[in-house]
Design a protein that fits this description.
Distance between the termini of chain B: 94 Å
CATH superfamily of chain A: ABC transporter involved in vitamin B12 uptake, BtuC
Structural class of chain A: mainly alpha
Oligomer: heterotrimer
Number of helices of chain A: 14
CATH class of the largest domain in chain B: Alpha Beta
Order of helices and strands of chain A: HHHHEEHHHHHHHHHH
Largest sheet of chain A: 2 strands, antiparallel
CATH superfamily of the largest domain in chain B: Nitrogenase molybdenum iron protein domain
Strand order of the largest sheet of chain A: 1-2
Structural class of chain B: alpha/beta
Number of domains of chain B: 2
Number of domains of chain A: 1
CATH topology of the largest domain in chain B: Rossmann fold
Chains: A mainly alpha (328), B alpha/beta (322), C alpha/beta (263)
Shape of chain B: elongated
Helix content of chain B: 25-40%
Distance between the termini of chain A: 25 Å
Chain lengths: 328, 322, 263
């Protein structure tokens, strides 16, 4: 168990070290760290430290968050098809961003542009609604109720999304669509640093839950009869997973596939025990997204491709391959 | 007694129906101009009296009730003096100010066919790609002009074509010639000057460098840039719009970055341009040649394109435009 | 000596809704097997959930070994009382051993990992239910009878004092029904595990349980040892069915043969 996690960790480290070295522009490591060249003149260093490194860090944070959120939702909703968006969180986050883009609320607060802030707020509002439903029910929330609430919320926010886009003009719509395809090209460490705090806090909170996730995946009654305070655990899980999703979407846009596929891929490799699945998902989610982003920015010429398209193209066939291997 | 009552009832019913439903589907309608009446029913439009006004007759193919859902062609029509023939415009048309008084019938994605037909146009200018709309106009026997969005030379070509179609060829020719002269002027002014490597950006998340939308090597913006004496650093990318990564900007090291802002009420402050400071090695940043250009004329490939190109020229070669 | 008792408990799922249980009292003797009988909706499952502390009664209380369970933390209850539900579905691919190990949860501290002792207890529980060879198999691929035995093992690993079983053989075929009945009887005899079994299979109750409690519409209509409670009259009162209760010579316990609906 520890060896597996160490293996995942090593892979993540390797990918993180290698990724900033690869790209459409060839750079020389020696020049990057050459202190004699002033930073403003050192193109290699700029490419490494401004263009690529923040991107890699953002990919780790976003990939990790989405993967862990996916694991948590799949366990609590007892549904292997659940994802960070099952409860409408990333649709809510998207709505926040689309509103800001369409109505040109182009202010920046403390160096963070309005779009990520609005999208985090959107996710928070979605969480608030789901939370209200969770609290209103006695004896923990029946997962059917939670799922239905999430589907309805997702549909509602999605519809509002489209409505807002109609209100905007063509270029706003185009910008919204681009945003929705995801982008990790943050170009600054501020965004990364700001997201780092809530993401880390949420990951720590989730780290207290692996056994609970195992038990809850058998059913609320089964978990309660084994001594789990399901309501308290559910709230902690919901809030943490929502913070993870909201932060990830505001940092990189609603990148699809990571939150639903990475948990599955990890489970196919390590089994169902959440004490291994959680850390493995956190590590592999980051790795996966760094690799997808690498492909997105190198394999399609200078124009590149949105990272969301790559996660979809890559994730699907990889998953199918794993399934065939396992069930041959 | 009964028969009388029946007659009264029938008369009252018909009268009230006539009052409630304007007789439209089959019947006589007064046309916009006096002396002409059209009988219109389902699929046929037949003029009962020849058009004897001076605005060109249907026999010469001119148009007098024009709907233009494309901002560029709307501007063209007004610029060539045919503005009074325009009865409706698209959702995004803004210029000239007169269009604000006109009814709007949708645009590329959502044309309101019912509204278009109800205005009884004799020419509808549509996007070449709006196949559904074209089919419906065909069915209704309403003539249309398909507009295709291409490069700079196509603008004057379109002006001439629209002018011919509408029946104001002379005015159109004057307009097109004028624009071509403007462009030639700019070309002449910047001839021989060192051409700076330029990046043309028309969108970006404010306060950051995320989701940079730039003009690629295809389309009228690219042509304008080249005419104004700049080298498009994205000239090799055969797309009209490119989502650009910071790495590519660093690698291609433009000498000038032009940020276009065109939305109404866009109050982007010059301070927002500071976001580019993160890319310190880019010559445009080092030499403080990151410029903001505000105006709709940069995104409408219409009659103002000459003026827009001149503005680009001024931004790139200020010394040549004293 | 009573180990668990329900004292005058009442419960309703909705705040002003109909009472599912109305002042029900049940005494479970230590080492005994008590059957809860009754038609659907009579409150059997609710009573089990009250006993395990999952639900809180509107009035009355549950007492475990002389202490009210409301005074006990959830985990402590879980260490002494385990529940075997009718069916267990796992959304993920846990192995049988992993399912059994989950029973050790209430015995661990906040961040404690299972140790060798826990593993030994889990394996022993598997052995007790005859499922050692299924240890590494995926739970979802087991047969119904195998699954139930693994779940019973999980309950044993969790709490070896009291087992609450909710319709344990309802979804099993005849062969597995006999297996489970034999297993439960053996566990009771060899390890003194107290059991409360809710069922509406009268023959199972007769074969397995030493005492019975008959519940109808939230009330206890009869309670006592099996032979005195399981009578033609009581069966008619409980199910509205005319049946013949016979002491079967070869089965060596009572059997109930339903004949017709009572008028």
């Amino acid at each position: 168990m520890a060896a597996t996690i160490a293996g995942f960790g090593a892979l993540t480290l390797l990918v993180c070290l290698a990724a900033p070295l690869v790209g459409t522009t060839s750079i020389h490591l020696a020049r990057v760290f050459d202190r004699t060249i002033p930073f403003t003149d050192n193109v290699d260093a700029q490419v490494f430290f401004v263009a690529r490194l923040p991107r890699v860090l953002a990919a780790i944070l976003v990939g990790s968050s989405l993967a862990v959120a996916g694991v948590v939702f799949q366990a609590f909703l007892r549904n292997p098809l659940a994802s960070p968006d099952t409860l409408g969180l990333s649709t809510g986050a998207t709505l926040g961003a689309v509103i800001v883009i369409t109505f040109h609320i182009d202010t920046a607060v403390f160096g963070i542009s309005a779009v990520p802030i609005a999208s985090f707020l959107g996710a928070a509002i979605a969480l608030g609604i789901v939370w209200a439903m969770s609290v209103a029910r006695r004896h923990g929330t029946s997962t059917t109720v939670l799922l239905l609430a999430g589907v309805a919320l997702s549909a509602f926010f999605g519809a509002l999304n489209r409505l807002v886009q109609v209100l905007g003009d063509f270029t706003d719509t185009f910008r919204s669509i681009r945003w929705m395809m995801g982008s990790l090209d943050v170009g600054s460490y501020t965004d990364v640093a700001v997201s780092f705090v809530p993401i880390t806090a949420a990951l720590v909170a989730v780290a207290t839950l692996p056994r609970v996730l195992d038990l809850v995946s058998l059913g609320t009654a089964a978990a309660e009869s084994r001594g789990v305070d399901v309501r308290r655990a559910e709230r902690l899980a919901l809030v943490s997973a929502s913070v993870l999703t909201g932060s990830a979407v505001s940092l990189g846009g609603p990148i699809p596939f990571v939150g639903i596929i990475v948990p599955h891929i990890v489970r196919l490799i390590v089994g169902a025990d959440h004490r291994v699945v959680l850390p493995a998902a956190a590590l592999f989610g980051g790795t996966f997204l760094v690799l997808c982003d690498l492909l997105a920015r190198t394999a399609f010429g200078a124009a590149g491709m949105p990272v969301g398209a790559v996660t979809a193209l890559l994730g699907g066939p990889f998953f199918l391959w794993l399934l065939f291997r396992r069930f041959r | 007694m009964r028969r009388r009552a029946l007659r009264t009832i029938v008369a009252a019913t018909v009268a009230s129906l006539a009052a409630v439903f304007p007789v439209r589907s089959v019947g006589l309608q007064a046309d916009g101009d006096p002396g002409s009446v059209r009988l219109q029913a389902d699929r046929a439009t037949v003029r009962l009296k020849p058009d004897t006004t001076n605005r060109g007759t249907s026999t010469d193919g001119g148009a007098h009730r024009i709907i233009s859902i494309i901002p560029a062609t709307t501007e063209m029509l007004f610029a060539m003096g045919a503005g009074d023939r325009v009865v409706a415009v698209g959702s995004y048309d803004r210029f000239p100010a007169a269009v604000e008084q006109l009814p709007r019938v949708g645009a590329l994605l959502d044309p309101n066919v019912e509204r278009i037909l109800s205005l009884r146009p004799d020419l509808v200018i549509v996007y070449g790609t709006q196949n559904d709309l074209r089919t419906q106009l065909d069915r209704a026997r309403v003539p249309y002009f398909p507009y295709v969005h291409r490069g700079l030379p196509d603008i004057t070509q379109t002006i001439r074509a629209v002018g011919d179609r509408v029946g104001v060829s002379a005015a159109a020719k004057t307009l097109a010639d004028g624009i071509e002269k403007q462009l030639a002027d700019v070309r002449a002014r910047v001839a021989g000057a060192a051409r700076p490597k330029t990046l043309l950006v028309f969108g970006r998340e404010s306060g950051s460098l995320r989701n940079i939308e730039a003009s690629g090597g295809v389309g009228f913006l690219h042509d304008m840039l080249e005419t104004a004496g700049g080298i498009d650093i994205l000239g090799d990318l055969k797309q009209q719009s490119v989502t650009l990564s910071t790495e590519v900007v660093l690698a291609r090291a433009p000498d000038v970055i032009l940020e276009l802002r065109y939305a109404r009420g866009d109050t982007t402050a010059a301070s927002d341009l500071r976001a580019w400071d993160a890319l310190a090695s880019v010559p445009a940043v080092k030499n403080r040649r990151v410029l903001l250009l505000q105006g709709e004329e940069f995104v409408v490939p219409g009659p103002r394109v000459g003026a827009a190109t001149e503005r680009l020229g001024r931004a790139l070669h200020p010394d040549r435009f004293k | 000596m009573t180990i668990v008792e329900a004292n005058d408990v009442s419960f309703a799922y909705e705040r002003d809704g109909a009472r599912v249980l109305d002042r029900v009292s049940v005494r479970v003797p230590r080492g005994g097997i008590v059957g809860l009988l009754g038609p659907n909706g009579s409150g059997k499952t609710t009573l089990l959930r009250l006993m395990s502390g999952t639900l809180t009664p509107a009035s009355g209380g549950i007492v475990l070994d002389g202490r009210s369970i409301t005074a006990m933390p959830r985990r402590e209850i879980a260490r002494r009382i385990a529940v075997v539900p009718q069916e267990t579905h796992s959304a993920f691919d846990f192995t049988a051993l992993e399912i059994v190990m989950m029973g050790r949860y209430p015995h661990l501290g906040a961040f404690e990992l299972e140790g060798a002792a826990d593993l030994a207890i889990a394996r022993e529980a598997l052995a007790a239910t005859g499922t050692s060879r299924l240890e590494a198999r995926r739970f979802a691929t087991l047969s119904g009878g195998e699954k139930q035995r693994v779940v019973i093992a999980s309950a044993l690993a969790q709490a070896s004092e009291v087992l609450l079983l909710d319709e344990p053989t309802a979804s099993l075929d005849l062969g597995f029904q006999l297996d489970i009945t034999a297993l439960l009887t053996r566990l009771n005899a060899e390890r003194g595990v107290t059991m409360v079994v809710s069922t509406h299979d009268l023959n199972l109750a007769a074969a397995l349980c030493g005492s019975l409690v008959m519940l109808r519409a939230g009330h206890v209509i009869a309670a006592g040892d099996t032979r005195s409670v399981l009578t033609n009259r009581n069966v008619r009162a409980l199910y509205g069915v005319d049946a013949e209760v016979v002491d079967h010579p070869r089965a060596r316990h009572l059997t109930v043969v339903p004949l017709a609906r009572a008028e």
